[in-house]
């Protein structure tokens, strides 16, 4: 009977524990933008179906980019807030009193309000250099590997252990601990410091007062010595004593996730720009309506402009890009085919962009003004920009791709209304993840940008083959090996000029007879929050890696003269070699930056064919008081020669046709009113849309826009 009683008792206890724990899960309750949110399962596979209320499993890693996320633990009711640019892993969920809810913060910032009631309230959060033991506390953790490892407590008490030195401290309400400081100690923060710490991790959807044990804001007694000696951390009554310097708790926010997302979308839906823009030295006024839609992974923005000089209501006074009246919709044409093409062209010009996903996703596409159109690894086309001369010249391009387990494809078109540069890539994976690809891009009309008379129907045909092998490819760490070989053959006078790629005068086949080609090999991927690319390049003749790049649209006409000169005297040229490195990263969740450079050389030493890339984006809230934010993007070839005024750079400037440059600075005047200044460069064109040349190069003019942006 005793044995039976003990067995029944154990069953009852087990049933009681299960009833209290249930099946613990973490639930994704809220996010701003699922495009900026990535979730990777414990098997390293990226989850493609993200939605409000989805269950997150043990081993899942959540990576936020330009979005925040909120998670609720069930059944105990604790809540967690992930700030933008955070990588967070759910290591384990508590199922017995001896276990705990274990998490890893790889980088970024979180805030959690842990339940003070029931079973399942024990927590442990690990970073690279520290571990925090928590129970029933409102706390936050910051991890910037190698730079910052902090814990802060809004209300309650935690044990904070430095795993590098094995030191342990207690942090109470309003305290901060820094595991990377010279002295590992608890520091009392000021109210201003605490407010600064929590301002970007305030809960938007979940209600902090709904967390068990955090319902009341009434003060409680100071913790007693007996309470302090109890199991770590302290009891609920001790933790309810708020620090006089701790920030005030949030007011309850109760809103439906779908409704809040809808209201946010509606608030961002309409945008109005009113201001001036300088084009080709002439100043225009403008009024532009830009409705914007973000529906899941789909992003859509329209561009409805009226750009005029003196009379807003006179269509004849409006600016006509490339000489086209974009509001005529065929009414200024006569022939049926011209009417149809004009309607199509004017319709496409009203699209600023449509986007879904990104390259290497199972499916992605971009339509509209695109400044980073890339095919494959980029030896033929990388960061091609069809909006380099926007708004002087407006095009609607296409970059689309799909990938299955064994095969995939990509395609690019520079302008759907008037396609001139287009191509594609087909690839397959014969063994595991090892891939083989074949690409080709053609420019059927480079002579439209030429400064001299050229043979009719001139075209540039490029082709490449590539290898792709993801050694490791996950959200946290990826090393992808690649190698490409490519070449270019022009079409002139009704025939392909194969002499450009191979010396056909030689009777015996030899590798030395090949010319005007290039190849590369390297690695790209990411290490935590840092994206990288490192490659070796080799090229010869008129072919350059990333032949179709950000400046190609402006320079395509100059290539014709160079190719004609090469064909008239196709003597061997010295090959150019180089190392290209690129890194992109986010600093303190406030600044996004990318920098890249190719160091080239030939047998004579440093070559003029270098490449420099610099992009920086300062996010809102980075600069105190004024809160000015914006971005700068500068991409140039022949950078060092121009800087030093040597070799081919002697007659060049840092903002000529070899440069792609844009800069934007925004000053918020009010919550729905911004003052913006946009500076860029554009190739000067005549009334018919033809590029104007000066000293053998396209003439570049500044485009300056001052505008007021109104949000509704």
Descriptive account of the structure:
With 712 residues, this protein is mainly beta. Helices cover 12% and strands 43% of the residues. The protein has a 24-stranded antiparallel beta sheet that branches. It has a 17-stranded mixed beta sheet that branches. It has a two-stranded antiparallel sheet with strand order 41-42. The N and C termini lie far apart (75 Å).
CATH topology label of the domain at 2-257: Jelly Rolls
The poorly predicted ranges are: 1-21, 217-266
What does the largest sheet look like?
24 strands, antiparallel
Give the rounded overall mean pLDDT.
80
Work out the helicity level: 10-25%
- What would you call the structural class? mainly beta
Based on CA atoms alone, the radius of gyration comes out at 30 Å
Dominant shape: globular
Name the beta content range.
35-45%
Query: What is the total tally of β strands?
Result: 43
Q: What is the end-to-end distance? A: 75 Å
What is the CATH architecture annotation of the domain at 2-257?
Sandwich
Q: Please tally the helical runs, counting DSSP H or I stretches of 4 or more residues.
A: 8
Using the coordinates above, name the CATH class of the domain at 2-257: Mainly Beta
Topology, element by element:
Blueprint: H1 2-21, E1 25-31, E2 37-40, E3 46-47, E4 54-56, E5 61-64, E6 69-74, E7 79-82, E8 86-92, E9 101-113, E10 122-126, E11 130-135, E12 138-144, E13 148-155, E14 157-162, E15 167-172, E16 175-178, E17 186-188, H2 191-198, H3 225-229, H4 236-239, H5 257-269, E18 271-279, E19 282-289, E20 292-295, E21 298-302, E22 304-308, H6 336-348, E23 351-356, E24 363-368, E25 397-403, E26 407-413, E27 421-431, E28 434-443, E29 459-473, E30 477-492, E31 495-496, E32 517-527, E33 530-539, H7 552-568, E34 576-587, E35 591-602, E36 605-606, E37 611-618, E38 629-637, H8 639-644, E39 659-670, E40 673-683, E41 693-694, E42 697-698, E43 700-711
Parallel strand pairs: 9-10
Antiparallel strand pairs: 1-4, 1-6, 2-3, 2-5, 5-8, 6-7, 7-9, 8-9, 9-12, 10-11, 11-14, 12-13, 13-16, 14-15, 16-17, 18-19, 18-43, 19-22, 20-21, 21-23, 23-24, 24-25, 25-26, 26-27, 27-28, 28-29, 29-30, 30-31, 30-32, 32-33, 33-34, 34-35, 35-36, 35-37, 37-38, 38-39, 39-40, 40-43, 41-42
């Amino acid at each position: 009977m005793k044995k039976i009683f003990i067995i029944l008792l154990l069953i009852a206890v087990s049933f009681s524990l299960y009833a209290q724990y249930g099946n613990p899960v973490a639930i994704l309750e809220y996010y701003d933008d699922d495009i900026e949110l990535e979730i990777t399962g414990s098997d390293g596979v990226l989850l493609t179906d993200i939605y409000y209320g989805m269950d997150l499993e043990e081993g899942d890693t959540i990576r936020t980019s330009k979005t925040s996320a909120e998670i609720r633990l069930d059944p105990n009711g604790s809540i967690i807030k992930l700030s933008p640019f955070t990588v967070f892993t759910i290591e384990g969920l508590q199922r017995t009193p001896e276990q705990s809810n274990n998490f890893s913060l790889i980088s970024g910032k979180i805030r959690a309000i842990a339940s003070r009631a029931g079973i399942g309230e024990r927590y442990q959060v690990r970073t690279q250099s520290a571990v925090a033991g928590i129970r029933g506390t409102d706390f936050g953790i910051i991890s910037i590997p190698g730079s910052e490892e902090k814990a802060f407590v809004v209300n309650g008490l935690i044990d904070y252990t430095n795993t590098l030195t094995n030191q342990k401290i207690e942090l109470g309400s309003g305290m901060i601990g820094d595991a990377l400081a010279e002295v590992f100690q608890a520091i009392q923060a000021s109210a201003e410091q605490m407010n600064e710490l929590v301002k970007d991790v305030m809960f938007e959807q979940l209600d902090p007062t709904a967390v068990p044990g955090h319902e009341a804001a009434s003060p409680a007694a100071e913790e007693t010595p007996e309470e302090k000696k109890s199991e770590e951390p302290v009891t609920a009554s001790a933790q309810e004593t708020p620090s006089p310097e701790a920030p005030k708790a949030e007011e309850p926010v109760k809103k439906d996730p779908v409704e809040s997302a809808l209201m946010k979308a509606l608030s961002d839906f309409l945008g109005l720009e009113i201001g001036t823009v300088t084009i080709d030295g002439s100043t225009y006024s403008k009024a532009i309506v830009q409705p914007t839609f973000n529906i899941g992974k789909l992003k859509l923005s329209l561009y409805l402009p009226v750009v005029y000089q003196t009379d807003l209501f006179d269509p004849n006074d409006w600016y006509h890009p490339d000489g086209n009246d974009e509001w005529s919709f065929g009414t200024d044409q006569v022939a049926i085919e011209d009417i149809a093409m004009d309607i199509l062209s004017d319709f496409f010009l009203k699209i600023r962009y449509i986007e879904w996903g990104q390259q290497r996703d199972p499916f992605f596409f971009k339509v509209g003004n695109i400044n980073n159109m890339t095919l494959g690894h980029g030896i033929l086309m990388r960061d091609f920009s069809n909006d380099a001369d926007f708004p002087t010249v407006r095009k609607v391009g296409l970059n689309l791709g799909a990938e299955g387990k064994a095969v995939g494809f990509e395609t690019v078109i520079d302008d759907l209304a008037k396609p001139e540069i287009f191509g594609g890539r087909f690839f397959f994976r014969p063994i595991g993840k090892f891939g083989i690809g074949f690409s080709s891009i053609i420019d059927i009309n480079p002579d439209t940008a030429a400064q001299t008379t050229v043979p009719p129907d001139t075209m540039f045909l490029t082709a490449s083959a590539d290898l792709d092998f993801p050694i490791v490819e996950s959200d946290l760490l990826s090393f992808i090996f690649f190698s490409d070989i490519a070449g270019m053959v022009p079409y002139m006078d009704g025939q392909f000029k194969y002499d450009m790629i191979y010396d056909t005068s030689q009777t015996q086949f030899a590798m030395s007879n090949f010319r005007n080609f290039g190849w590369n090999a390297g690695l790209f991927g990411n290490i935590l929050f840092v994206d990288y690319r490192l490659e070796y390049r080799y090229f010869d003749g008129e072919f350059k890696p990333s032949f179709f790049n950000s400046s190609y649209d402006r320079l395509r006409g100059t290539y014709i003269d160079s190719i004609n000169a090469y064909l008239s005297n196709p003597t061997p040229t010295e090959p150019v070699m180089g190392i290209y490195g690129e890194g992109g990263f986010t600093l303190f969740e406030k600044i996004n930056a990318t920098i890249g450079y190719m160091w080239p050389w030939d047998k004579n030493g440093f070559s003029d064919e270098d490449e420099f890339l610099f992009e920086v984006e300062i996010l809102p809230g980075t600069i105190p008081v004024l809160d000015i934010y914006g971005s700068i993007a500068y991409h140039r070839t022949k950078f060092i020669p121009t800087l030093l005024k040597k070799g081919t750079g002697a007659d060049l400037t840092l903002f000529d046709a070899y440069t792609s440059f844009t800069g934007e600075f925004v000053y918020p005047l009010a919550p729905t009113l911004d003052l913006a200044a946009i500076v860029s460069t554009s190739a000067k064109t005549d009334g018919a849309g033809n590029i104007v040349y000066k000293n053998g190069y396209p003439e570049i003019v500044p485009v300056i826009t001052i505008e007021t942006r109104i949000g509704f």
